[in-house]
């Protein structure tokens, strides 16, 4: 955006000399229609995005339903002190970080591998059919994915357990025991995102100069050598940018993904920050505590994203802002 | 297909290429992993209960019948939730597009005074938000809880979609075109309506699909905001209560003694809810790929 706006200013200055000195009324008269158009989205953003931010004061108050948000008493950082002492909160932070880091390890790397392999396919038709199949899970809701997961991985009558039993093995509690659940959660994440994640990598692979491959062939490089020494370095920029962006979101968590896969038997890893906010806030009505947890997450998230942006720019990338 | 391309390589290199076979094999396995779960669920939904209870159904239905689908179409609450999903998705997509265009067009004009300021106001929402509870309280204060508007109004503005629209307008509409229209006496409304919108059909299609599929698939806000008024549950939320939480039973006729295995019903419910997406998937896929690439230019 920085580059664009700088360019925009230059262009503006060239085309309309003296424009910057004009009065505000001049612009209002000239572009009033543009400002009228802007009123609609502005109204929505102010009401539905900015107004809730004022509700964050709840994190510093002891919310009483009878007194309302503004009438409730200020308590400073007491609510934060309170939640930091709660084992549920500690566990939610641990789980959020754990699930996201493991996701980064598996769900982030799988698309890279898959893109490298897809790039080696010569038949256009074979590639297209397989890409369509691989992209499919991305279009499904987490509810449907969760429902299918239980149909396949359920301990009592899941299809995969039927196969395992048919082959003489024991039934595995894929979704009904904590550690197994964690592995299933990660595997389902990989399944859902591996195909769709290849798109950006394939796009940057397609912009590699074919002469690089020809030169490598002349030098006697085999297929793996070319993959390692030509393709991979060429998409390094994309990989690093996406990695930094993902690190910036390490405190986020998908409520929908967890919620459609959790069950009563597996509570160890399913309490993440958004789940805790829902449970404390909307289910139990403890708004102050839940708001404080949300604010804690949002503040760390903002700092991380800004840091990620700074690092990306240091490395010569466009950055996110 | 695998053998065809394999044969081509063999002819050119005059030898069996081990890596080629391995790579094709891995890709094929990954695709099958994406496809077979659906095949299994479809097979289950069409099978007779006895075979499903005996864990005999894998990829091919046994004792084919459409009884479970008959039950879905006889269940008023499932049809109702489907209907709610259609209404919410339609209204949401129209509103979302109006908001996106109204924001993107002015922000894509370089000569607009205050452009940087407005852009910042919109984009800041990508990085910071009030969060679940303050938003819940706002919806409550506005009296939107337990109404379909709680699923339409709050998420209608999407900074990410605005970014895509703005980038696309900046790169696809040459400023000279706009200038000549201005010289001919056209105002901004006229330019937007007669020039910009007709030229932006592809990106409008892409973003409409982003909005529509996103809305169709989401259930978090419905779970938060629609608690008592069960008639307003969208399809995904209905599915959550029916299949995942299994806290709710299918509305079977009271006189009818049901011997049906819920597993078959669950499977047919999943198919019923997936079908709309699967039907349009072949047509929308390319728009999504384009959108993903546009979004990656910035962001």
Automatic annotation (TrEMBL), chain B:
Subcellular location(s) of the protein: Cell membrane
PROSITE patterns: ABC_TM1, PROKAR_LIPOPROTEIN
Segments forming domain ABC transmembrane type-1: 82-283
Key word Cell membrane present: yes
Membrane-spanning parts: 21-43, 82-105, 117-138, 144-164, 191-213, 264-284
GO CC terms in record: plasma membrane
One Pfam family linked to the record: BPD_transp_1
Domain of life: Bacteria
InterPro entries: MetI-like (IPR000515), MetI-like_sf (IPR035906)
GO biological process annotation, one example: transmembrane transport
Record membrane topology: Multi-pass membrane protein
Main localisation: membrane
Keywords recorded for this protein, A-Z: Cell membrane, Membrane, Transmembrane, Transmembrane helix, Transport
Family recorded in the similarity comment: Belongs to the binding-protein-dependent transport system permease family.
UniProt name for this protein: Carbohydrate ABC transporter permease
UniProt source species: Paenibacillus nanensis
């Amino acid at each position: 955006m920085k580059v664009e706006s700088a360019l925009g200013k230059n262009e503006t200055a060239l085309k309309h000399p003296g424009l910057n000195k004009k009065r505000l009324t001049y612009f209002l008269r000239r572009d009033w229609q543009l400002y009228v158009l802007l009123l609609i989205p502005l109204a929505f953003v102010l009401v539905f995005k900015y107004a809730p931010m004022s509700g964050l004061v709840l994190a510093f108050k002891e919310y009483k339903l009878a007194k309302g948000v503004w009438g409730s008493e200020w308590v400073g950082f007491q609510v934060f002190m309170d939640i930091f002492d709660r084992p549920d909160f500690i566990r939610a932070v641990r789980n959020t970080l754990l699930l996201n880091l493991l996701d980064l390890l598996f769900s982030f790397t799988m698309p890279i591998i898959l893109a490298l392999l897809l790039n080696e396919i010569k038949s256009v038709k074979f590639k297209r059919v397989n890409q369509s199949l691989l992209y499919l899970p991305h279009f499904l809701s987490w509810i449907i994915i969760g429902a299918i997961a239980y149909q396949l991985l359920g301990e009592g009558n899941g299809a995969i357990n039927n196969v395992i039993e048919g082959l003489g093995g024991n039934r595995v509690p894929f979704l009904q025991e904590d550690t197994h659940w964690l592995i299933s959660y990660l595997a389902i994440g990989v399944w859902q995102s591996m195909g769709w994640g290849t798109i950006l990598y394939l796009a940057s692979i397609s912009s590699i100069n074919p002469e690089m491959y020809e030169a490598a062939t002349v030098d006697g490089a085999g297929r793996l050598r070319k993959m390692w020494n030509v393709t991979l370095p060429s998409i390094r920029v994309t990989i690093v940018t996406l990695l930094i962006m993902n690190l910036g979101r390490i405190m986020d968590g998908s409520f929908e993904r967890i919620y459609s896969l959790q069950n009563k038997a597996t509570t160890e890893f399913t309490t993440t920050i958004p789940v805790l906010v829902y449970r404390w806030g909307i289910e139990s009505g403890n708004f102050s505590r839940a708001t404080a947890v949300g604010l804690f997450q949002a503040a760390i998230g903002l700092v991380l994203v800004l840091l990620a942006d700074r690092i990306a720019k240091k490395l010569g990338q466009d950055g996110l802002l | 297909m695998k053998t065809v391309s394999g044969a081509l390589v063999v002819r050119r290199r005059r030898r069996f290429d081990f890596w080629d076979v391995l790579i094709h094999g891995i890709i094929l396995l990954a695709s099958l992993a994406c496809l077979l779960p659906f095949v299994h669920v479809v097979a289950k939904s069409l099978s007779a209960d006895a075979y499903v209870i005996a864990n005999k159904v894998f990829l091919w239905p046994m004792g084919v019948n459409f009884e479970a689908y008959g039950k879905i179409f006889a269940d008023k609450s499932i049809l109702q939730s489907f209907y709610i999903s259609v209404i919410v998705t339609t209204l949401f997509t129209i509103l979302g597009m109006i908001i996106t265009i109204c924001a993107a067009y002015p922000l894509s004009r370089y000569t607009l005074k205050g452009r940087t300021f407005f852009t910042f106001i919109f984009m800041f929402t990508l990085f910071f938000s009030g969060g679940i509870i303050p938003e819940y309280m706002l919806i409550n204060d506005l009296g939107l809880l337990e109404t379909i508007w709680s699923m339409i109004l709050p998420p209608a503005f999407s900074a990410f979609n605005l970014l895509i629209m703005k980038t696309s307008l900046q790169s696809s509409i040459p400023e000279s075109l706009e200038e000549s229209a201005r010289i001919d006496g056209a105002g901004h409304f006229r330019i937007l309506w007669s020039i910009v919108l007709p030229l932006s059909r592809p990106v409008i299609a892409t973003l409409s699909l982003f909005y529509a599929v996103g809305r169709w698939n989401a259930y978090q806000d419905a779970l938060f905001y629609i608690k008592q008024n069960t008639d307003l549950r969208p399809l995904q939320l209905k599915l959550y209560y029916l299949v995942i939480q299994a806290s709710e039973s299918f509305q079977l006729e009271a006189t009818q003694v049901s011997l049906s295995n819920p597993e078959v019903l669950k499977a047919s419910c999943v198919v019923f809810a997936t079908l709309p997406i699967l039907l349009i998937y072949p047509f929308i896929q390319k728009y999504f790929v384009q959108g993903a690439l546009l979004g990656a230019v910035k962001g």
